[in-house]
């Protein structure tokens, strides 16, 4: 591909991303960081775990995003009486012809919102394991592929722990990022009230699922310097064996560190964030911005850490302070100039 055609492609990509974000921002007020993380997850083909109190537009954001992309949106309200068949589907016997037919569940969508995922027991939560990793569901020995692109966004409420079931480690590890959503500012809340009490805004579809799939393929072409990958490896390695990186004092605070999925997600996330920021190469800040979101749910703290009042975010900040990111590769800046 010539430099001219490459720049034309970059411009078209940037315009499409801007249009998508513009349409979502017509409905959703604030939450810029959360929205950015949702876009990163979509481009990097990852899944998102969102923690925040009710009423912070988590559902609205994903639903609006689905509408801008002509994608299929499904929402599942997780409850203690849910069974796996309610998610993935089941076999139904037809009395007229005496045959079984397959009824596919709500996981067969482009954007799946698993609301209050920790309200359902582990048996139901584990029904999502296969579909999140393999992008397919097996019902009675038959394999069914979910639509492409496919994104699971799960929410959990941090203030209510009665009647909740902690997510299994295998489940949590399949989420690319865990994003914490905070309250809006006073100015944003004023605009929220005006929007909600005013006339309804109709979202215009600006992209197709085929275009999104093309953007995901384009995202895989974003250049990540080997020094950045090495930085990701060091950070993740430090969550498993801090003593090997000169942080022996942190060893007592960690029970389990992050898996290799964290390193992969950091690299893919840096690519997606670089693409959102209009570049064809990743810079150190693209990765450092995502480190807390990618690692916070993967590091299992010891009882000693919890008794000392330490959380995973504080631990990650200590590791990041000790392991500096690589310098910006100057060759990239020459290519752009």
Automatic annotation (TrEMBL):
Annotated keywords: ATP-binding, Nucleotide-binding
Biological processes, Gene Ontology terms: regulation of DNA-templated transcription
InterPro entries to which the protein is assigned, alphabetical: ATPase_AAA-3, CbbQ/NirQ/NorQ/GpvN, ChlI/MoxR_AAA_lid, P-loop_NTPase, Sigma_54_int
CDD domains: AAA (cd00009)
Every Sigma-54 factor interaction domain range: 10-157
Cited Pfam families: AAA_3 (PF07726), AAA_lid_2 (PF17863)
Molecular-function GO term, any one: ATP binding
Record-stated family: Belongs to the MoxR family.
Protein name: MoxR family ATPase
């Amino acid at each position: 591909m010539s430099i001219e055609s490459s720049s034309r492609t970059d411009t078209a990509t940037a315009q499409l991303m801007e249009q998508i974000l513009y349409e979502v921002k017509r409905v959703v007020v604030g939450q810029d960081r959360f929205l950015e993380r949702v876009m990163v997850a979509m481009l990097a083909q990852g899944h998102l775990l969102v923690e925040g109190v009710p009423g912070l537009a988590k559902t609205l954001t994903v639903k609006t995003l689905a509408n801008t992309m002509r994608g299929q949106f499904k929402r599942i309200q997780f409850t203690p009486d849910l069974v796996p068949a309610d998610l993935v589907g089941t076999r139904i016997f037809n009395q007229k012809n005496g045959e079984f037919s397959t009824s596919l569940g709500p996981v067969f969508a482009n954007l799946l919102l698993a609301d209050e995922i920790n309200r359902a027991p582990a048996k139901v939560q584990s029904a999502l394991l296969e579909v999140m990793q393999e992008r397919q569901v097996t019902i009675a020995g038959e394999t069914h592929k979910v639509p492409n692109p496919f994104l699971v966004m799960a929410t959990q409420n941090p203030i209510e722990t009665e009647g909740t079931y902690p997510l299994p480690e295998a489940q949590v590890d399949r989420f690319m990022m865990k994003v914490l959503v905070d309250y809006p500012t006073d100015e944003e809340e004023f605009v929220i009230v005006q929007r909600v009490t005013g006339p309804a805004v109709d979202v215009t579809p600006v992209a197709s699922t085929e275009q999104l799939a093309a953007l995901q393929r384009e995202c895989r072409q974003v250049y990540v310097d080997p020094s950045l990958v090495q930085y990701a490896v060091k950070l993740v390695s430090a969550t498993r064996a801090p003593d090997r990186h000169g942080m022996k004092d942190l060893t007592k605070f960690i029970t389990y560190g992050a898996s290799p999925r964290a390193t992969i997600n950091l690299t893919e996330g840096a690519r997606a964030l670089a693409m959102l920021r209009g570049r064809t190469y990743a810079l150190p800040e693209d990765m450092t911005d995502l480190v807390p979101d990618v690692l916070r749910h993967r590091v299992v703290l010891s009882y000693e850490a919890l008794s000392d009042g330490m959380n995973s975010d504080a631990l990650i900040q200590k590791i990041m302070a000790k392991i500096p990111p690589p310098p910006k590769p100057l060759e990239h800046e020459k290519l752009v100039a």
